[in-house]
Amino acid sequence: MTYFKNVGKIAYEGKGSDNPLAFKHYNPKETVLGKTMEEHLRFAVAYWHTFTGSGSDPFGVGTAVRAWDRPDAMDQAKARVEANFEFLEKIGIPYYCFHDRDIAPEGETLQQTNKNLDIIVDMLESNMKSSGAKLLWNTANMFTNPRFVHGAGTTSNAEVYAYAGAQLKKSLEIGKRLGAENYVFWGGREGYETLLNTDMALELDNLARLFHMAIAYSKEIGFGAQFLIEPKPKEPSKHQYDFDAATTIAFLQKYDLKEYFKLNLEANHATLAGHTFEHEIRVAAINGMLGSLDANQGDLLLGWDTDEFPTDLYATTLTMYEVLKAGGIGKGGVNFDAKVRRGSFEDEDLFLAHIAGMDSYAWGLKAAAKLIEDKVLDNIVDNRYRSFRDGIGAEIVSGKATLQSLEQYALQNNPIKNESGRQERIKLLLSEVIFSV
User: Fold this and answer.
1) Which residues are catalytic?
2) Whole-prediction pTM
3) Alpha-carbon distance 185 to 291, whole Å?
4) Distance of CA 189 to the CA centre of its chain
5) DSSP of 46-90, one letter per residue?
6) Omega before 310 cis (within 30°)?
7) Predicted confidence (pLDDT) per residue in 258-312, tens digit
8) N or C: which end of the chain has fewer CB within 10 A?
9) Continuous segment of H or E residues that includes residue 111
């Protein structure tokens, strides 16, 4: 069955095109800094927003009109598989990502749930072989079902913890079978509402134990995917343990997990944590922990995770600048963890939204490459910190300085002269580069 009858394969037509169903900036084979755009960006489609999202919000039911909607849950799951691979082929995206509960419905028992998964995974595997599409990452949804009301790895109920372990085991097996290049842990309810009834130490210890079990089992079955943790500060829990990149890295260091994990960073989660996306990427990169990206953007006028498609060119440019400076995202990718707006309810809107996101990231990639090639920001930063290249600054950087030597230098009472950071000028330079590519 064809699900997108009115849409053909999306092609690159360049900036002069007025075709809404064409790329203006994303040319997958165009070379940027020695690699193709496709190699740099490694785009992925998020199964949950694209194929299971209904357009519902806290104040209204779903508005999405989808050709794969079916009254029977398993029939619908099978239709979504077909729609997914048709979409990937037409939009030209090589990867997709999913939670286990995105692809198959839960049954009345764990056995039935796993049977449902096996049926759908058979279909996914067959379609991947015939299409060449790949799985960027998979994960387990351990937050939607009411059993996880108090968390999964951080639950107060040992029976729930055991169920979470069983679900994780199955999810790792699926990842191995489908050749997932990464495996993501997102602690949807790994947090707390109030400390008045929370044993934080036990919850964090138990979460680390679950991660170590996952590492051990992955080694046992030969699943070599890169493990990723996705930070988020709040929502649904008031305070989640993986608050931001820095908090997550500290957790991994404490529990001897850092060598096994990197971070899957999401733009909207950075906003909720009070950071920019580029800040989170920089923190991960300087700690050797940059793994993959979830591409979206939030609305600064709204205080929740709106998961909009990324269209802010300043944000995509600075994101790709950090990625390029870090040496790329390796086995990770740019996953569109984004959903069309509730008013964009037609199937065609899924293509228009992904085109907008892909073109925005391609534009950002080109602008970031120009910033690097012309050393626009490098020269500014190098000049600003030049005092650390010789004299007392060089002694500080080399580790030779002591408090005594710093005092001796300060007692010379040399005049101290600071220089302007020139932020406004730098931002104008950034604009000039973005709109010149």
Assistant:
1) 99, 102
2) 0.97
3) 12
4) 18
5) EHIIIII----BTTB------TT--SSHHHHHHHHHHHHHHHHHH
6) no
7) 999 999 999 999 999 999 999 999 999 999 999 999 999 999 898 889 999 999 9
8) N
9) helix 110-131
